[in-house]
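Hi everyone,

Forwarding the result from last night's run.
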Amino acid sequence: MCEALWNATENVPKEGARTLENAVFLNPGIRFAINFKNGLQIVPGLAVPIGIGPSDSFGLFTYLSFEHPLF
C-alpha cells in the first residue's frame, strides 16, 4: 500500500508577512493479517515515510493491531 500526506502550515509573526510552509510525504509500506480459528486477527505492518521537496527526510513506521470478535 502507499499513502500520501500533504501538510500546509501558515506562520503569522507579530510583525512582517505571513509565510506558508508545505510538507509532502509518501508512505509506502506493507501489512498483512494472521487469522486464528477462535476469531482473533493479528495485523502487523511496516512503512517508510519519505519526505519530498523541502521536507526531505525519512523514517520508519510500525503498526500492530489485535482484532477479535466482541461476542
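The chain has one domain: 2-11+19-67.

Cheers,
N.
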